[in-house]
Amino acid sequence: MMTERTESAAPRATPRLVLLVEDEPDARTILARRLQAFGWNCLAHPSVESALKDPELRYVEAVVADVVLGDGKLSGIDLISSLRKEEVRAPVVLVTAFADTQRLKAALNAGASYLLEKPFTTESLRQVLEKVTTVDVDLARPTWEETLHREAGTARTIGADLELAVFVDRHSAELGSLAGALRQTGVRVARLLAFSHDEGTSSAATVTLVRSELGDAAGGAPVYGGTNVLFTELNRFRPELDTPDGIAWPLNATVHASDDTSIAETPAMHGETVRSARAFCGDLPLAVTPVTFNQRFNAVATGPEPEPEPGELPSQVDRRQPSLLGAGWTLASAKHLAEAGAASVTYFETTGWRGVVESSDGSRAPTRFRSLPGMAFPLYHVLADLCELRGGEIRAARSNAPLAIEALVIRAGDPLVLLVANLTPARQRCRVDALPAGSVAVRRLDEQTFGQAATEPASFRAEREPLDRRGGDALTLELAPFAYVRVDMSL
């Protein structure tokens, strides 16, 4: 599950160490200065050979390297294997002017966490370096330590910080062991979520216990209270506000009904939960975590959940996860949560049938959950767009048919970006009014481009088609069934 804060990132209180390998002197100087401005200490080198001799190499927490580093020199891809031989496990971001499919595969096969295409902004690089992933640690389960190390490995692989949900209950004695294990992983923690199965919402005592036992190991990360069940619990058992650094709760699309029309109605209600929480949580940051299609567990169950019948999906899995409608619903949810003022939002898992990309093994129930091994689900592109635009200014956008079309508008310098989703199985015509003058370029994800977006996500994301506005300040978009469209307007 990928978490992205909506506010701009401030420089870190404790700077992290990043290795930068760039052979062009001016580019190396500019990038190093920008990384330092974002709160990183930077080891800047002109070559792989030079970087591998740096005495601080083993302490780096992220690596940024050009793919091509001069004739006869080791490449950025060669750097990855060299780092692994030196037991340096930091995530590697490769940059290149030629992000074709072959190069993307080579980079990912070598172990790169991300391939960033030139020209890129330093803001887009910062967003890649600031990604966050979530892990739940229930100390009542004997496998909690295995879970922590597995998910910490995932976080390192994708270059993410952890959002760590801790369940204490009667196992508070295990918190000391968790603190030691957390230090051993070496990953950074974005925030701690303090929960107890015995409480409707986190008590001040639970938050205080987690902070006192894990605060140092988590690098002073903020500790949130709230609920891991449903927003109704938060509303029923109002949280104590003097102790937590923020309040958190989960949301899903199908708590009352699961047909396509019903789930189109849930995003607006997601925004209302934020407004309701704001009314009784004061100025505390509000984290919605996680957001899923189906409930993750039955909070009122009196026994173990029955195993699904052969070929059927578990109750936590929704067939729309890899679909175009899944992308549209994700955009609509993000729109309403962002416009309502959520401080951070966590969506889905990383891989598999509750994730943003399919696992390399593919679907375990292919007749019910239709996907390809390793494919990027359409909703991946929604989240990737939101990550690229992180820190931008959200502009109000109102649809006169919100169950058919939803839109999110973000001003991220130049351009102004409009994200639009058709939530219906019919073609729709969308007219966008009150737009400033400027050129327009469009990227469409629909039935025609689904294959490329799924199997060649980097090349798909790089494509734009110019759109003729034909005078005036309005823009007309023709939307295919369940289409997701990104519109970039250069001002």
How would you briefly describe this protein structure?
This protein is 31% helix and 24% strand. It has 491 residues and is of the alpha/beta class. Strand 2 (16-21), helix 1 and strand 3 form a beta-alpha-beta unit.
Summarize the SSE layout with pairings:
Layout: E1 2-5, E2 16-21, H1 25-37, E3 40-45, H2 48-51, E4 62-66, H3 76-85, E5 92-96, H4 101-110, E6 114-117, H5 122-129, E7 132-138, H6 144-158, E8 161-167, H7 175-185, E9 189-195, H8 204-214, E10 223-226, H9 231-236, E11 246-252, H10 260-281, E12 286-292, H11 324-340, E13 344-347, H12 378-388, E14 393-395, E15 405-411, E16 416-422, E17 428-432, E18 439-445, H13 450-455, H14 457-462, E19 465-466, E20 475-479, E21 484-490
Parallel strand pairs: 2-3, 2-4, 4-5, 5-6, 7-8, 8-9, 9-10, 10-11, 11-12, 12-13
Antiparallel strand pairs: 1-7, 1-13, 14-15, 15-16, 16-21, 17-20, 18-19, 18-21
Helix pairs in contact: 6-7, 10-11, 11-12
Please name the defining characteristics of this protein.
single chain, 491 residues, alpha/beta, Rossmann fold, TIM Barrel, Immunoglobulin-like, 3 domains, eight-stranded mixed β-barrel, six-stranded antiparallel β-sheet, 14 helices, globular, disordered N terminus
Question: Please, could you describe this protein's structure?
Answer:
- The protein is of the alpha/beta class.
- It folds into 3 domains: 2-127, Response regulator (Rossmann fold, 3-Layer(aba) Sandwich); 131-388, TIM Barrel; 398-490, Immunoglobulin-like (Sandwich).
- It contains 14 helices and 21 strands.
- It has helices at 25-37, 48-51, 76-85, 101-110, 122-129, 144-158, 175-185, 204-214, 231-236, 260-281, 324-340, 378-388, 450-455, 457-462, and strands spanning 2-5, 16-21, 40-45, 62-66, 92-96, 114-117, 132-138, 161-167, 189-195, 223-226, 246-252, 286-292, 344-347, 393-395, 405-411, 416-422, 428-432, 439-445, 465-466, 475-479, 484-490.
- An 8-stranded mixed β-barrel has the order 1-7-8-9-10-11-12-13, surrounded by 4 helices.
- Strand 11, helix 10 and strand 12 form a beta-alpha-beta unit.
- The radius of gyration is 23 Å and the shape is globular.
- Mean pLDDT is 85; it is low at 1-14.
